[in-house]
Structures are given as structure tokens and as C-alpha cells.
Amino acid sequence: MPTGGAAIMREGPNLLKLARKEQCLALGTRLRSKYKITYQFYRVFPNGEVQYLHPKDGVYPEKANPGREGVGLNMRSIGKNVSPIEVKFTGKQSYDL
């Protein structure tokens, strides 16, 4: 465990409270690579509201989801990228083209 110690996992959902998101990600990486376990991180506020931290939309980043929008996605190969010198004084960024 990231904080030192041991735990016994039951079948079904298990709850582990950790102080930092980095600890959750470290433990999650170990669980997914070694045991193929799916996990979720969420924050529970005092009023009972739940905010999902990872995965935000319920699907892990390495999985394809038809509803997920690509962020900064360019449908071209790296060889088809615009030369930065052609964009230098146009007021646009190379990633906008």
C-alpha cells in the first residue's frame, strides 16, 4: 500500500480512505497492472455530494468510449503537421491549424 501497511480485499466493492489523490493513483496503478481490478476515486463532501475524480466520466483513459470527445485531437500524422515558420507571424498557433 502507498502509505505502508496491508489490507485484505473482500469480493465486491471495497472502500479505502486515503488523504491524497497521488496515493490513490499509485495504488490504482498497482491494482490495475497486477490484479486487473477496476477502481474509482471520489471525494465525498460533508453535505453528502459525491464528486468523481478518476475516471471523471466513468471510462478509463485507455479505453475507447463513443461518447468521449478528444481533447487536443488532430486527425493527422506527425509528418502532416504545419511547419512553425509558416505560422510565425500569422497570430495563430501551430496546434490551431
Automatic annotation (TrEMBL):
Keyword vocabulary terms for this entry: Photosynthesis, Photosystem I, Thylakoid
Biological process annotations from GO: photosynthesis
Lineage of source species: Eukaryota, Viridiplantae, Streptophyta, Embryophyta, Tracheophyta
Protein name: Photosystem I reaction center subunit II, chloroplastic
Membrane topology recorded in Swiss-Prot or TrEMBL: Peripheral membrane protein
InterPro entries per record: PsaD, PsaD_sf
SUPFAM superfamilies per record: Photosystem I subunit PsaD
A Pfam entry, by short name: PsaD
Gene3D superfamilies: Photosystem I PsaD, reaction center subunit II (3.30.1470.10)
Role of this protein: PsaD can form complexes with ferredoxin and ferredoxin-oxidoreductase in photosystem I (PS I) reaction center. PSAD may encode the ferredoxin-docking protein.
Keyword Thylakoid: yes
GO (cellular component) term, any one: chloroplast thylakoid membrane
Family, per entry: Belongs to the PsaD family.
Annotated localization: Plastid, Chloroplast thylakoid membrane
